[in-house]
Specification:
- The protein is an alpha+beta fold.
- It is built from two helices and four strands, in the order βαββαβ.
- The chain has one domain: Ribosomal protein S6/Translation elongation factor EF1B (Alpha-Beta Plaits, 2-Layer Sandwich), CATH 3.30.70.
- It has a four-stranded antiparallel beta sheet.
Amino acid sequence: MKQFIYETMYILRPDLGEELTDRAIAKYQELLREHGATNVETQHRGKRRLAYEIDDHREGIYVQMNYECDGSPVATLERMMRLSEEVIRYLTVKQEVRESEPEEEAAPAQA
């Protein structure tokens, strides 16, 4: 199966403590790995002010995950986030596929 590169940005409730935030991040990373995602990289962007109020929250904890998979784990991840009380928004973007360039044959040396 073809592997694609995905980026999921999600916002956690600002009232979660540091321990609950770390637990939520680990839970989503593990979910992706269990469903076959590779190269899971997470960036904790910290608490930031939202552009507009969401569910009575003016701030949120931003987290970005980049990973490679065939696409099947994305639906599972988004379903889990949709049902979660700790996630207030999420967005997944499929990025360009890294094409491996064909190796050019070396021209014979001219004497």
